[in-house]
Amino acid sequence: MNMHRDHGRSAAATYQAGLAAYEEGRHAEAIELLSGIADRRSLPGTLARFYLGQAHLHQGVSELRLGRYAVAARHLSAARETNPTSASLSRYLLACHVGRGRFDLAATELEKALDRGDTDAALPIRLAHALARDGQRPRAIETLERAIDEAPNRADLRFQLGLLHAAAEDFDPAVEMLENAVRLAPSDPAARQHLGLALAARGQVAHAMPHLAVAQQLQPHDAYLALLLSLAAEAAQSAGAATSVDPLPVATAPTDDDTIATLGEVIVEDPDFVEAFLSLPASDVDPEIFAVLAMVLEQALERHPNFADLHYHCSRVYARLGRTEPAITEADCAVGLNPRYVQALIQLGRLYGRTERSADAIERLQAAIDHGGDYPDVHVMLGELYQAGGRPDEARSEYRRALTLNKGYTRAKHALAELATA
């Protein structure tokens, strides 16, 4: 019985060491440790199997990024043993096989995904490409034809099948498929371009020109398309064919205003997008980056003035630019729209504290705590305001609350020590 207990403790200790290695990102070490106990019928063994699979996954992805495809495939295959239905694992394994040039294995992986009912719409296209690159062109064509039967209005499937025929210089079915793709997606420049090329290859240069012209109008800055169009016009002229095309509206490149509007809508959909910028360390390019971001937020607020999140993030950006008063105004708007907006209340407290409006700062920070913002840093800010205002008892109470919430909070410890010395 004692030997059994010792054995159990050894497995548990190994599991703990393996888990520690996993959490610290030492995945190779975690694999070595957890492999030794993963096959045991015990709680540590069961948990070890899960984390062993996760460690193999992370190690496999690391190897994949380094281009060590064979090593990556071994780790990812091991991960699959513990999680056979993982879609992400399938994609990683697929990348390994493609990187190694093993298109047969890539096709097998994609076929498994199709059999599992993977909802990735691009799956039939990727499978067809893998089969074609493995020399299985008839199966590639069959894959796309079957997908078209199931989704007859998908232009991308017909486009890819047209490309497949064109690559084999089988231009009659290529033209048919590409014409169908253009019918379904008349503004797709790639479909127009390749239909033009297929028609030209079939000797129908005059018929190719209108499609190349549309493609060039849709992408007016594409020099290659302009070259194709000029070559087609020259060939048609040499053959005595008409070279004029119907006038088309000139497509324009996105302007700065368009870009700003688009970015504004991204922020409206996901206001925390701004956090990615705010989390950047201070640098010399801050004025440029945050001036643009402020402009984006201002335009978004013109369209959505009642979005509290937009006002809050605009306040954060203004503060980063050193524009304290506009930052206060925007944070106040956020709180006006949502009086329980904890982060906006904290922002107001911080800004009022900077401008020596201590009473207003204390009021906003206390409101943040009352509405759920019972955070160590908020209590420390309150404590510092009380201390600066000559109210040591209230300050001491706030610092102690901060330490109750976070025993290792150095800032609160130092503040308490300073009060004790005073």
CATH class of the domain at 259-373: Mainly Alpha
Provide the residue-averaged pLDDT.
Answer: 75
How is the CATH topology of the domain at 259-373 named?
Serine Threonine Protein Phosphatase 5, Tetratricopeptide repeat
Structural class by secondary-structure content: mainly alpha
Looking at how many chains there are and whether they match, the oligomeric state comes to single chain
Count of alpha/pi helices: 23
The string of secondary-structure elements, in order, is HHHHHHHHHHHHHHHHHHHHHHH
User: Could you list the spans in which at least 5 consecutive residues all have pLDDT below 50?
Assistant: 1-9, 85-90, 243-259
How many DSSP-defined strands?
0
Assign an overall shape: flat
Strand residues, percent? under 5%
Using the 3D structure, state the CATH architecture of the domain at 259-373: Alpha Horseshoe
The named CATH superfamily of the domain at 259-373: Tetratricopeptide repeat domain
Gyration radius, in Å: 32 Å
Note the gap between the termini.
Answer: 62 Å
Largest sheet: none
Entry keywords:
Serine Threonine Protein Phosphatase 5, Tetratricopeptide repeat, 23 helices, 76% helix, 422 residues, mainly alpha
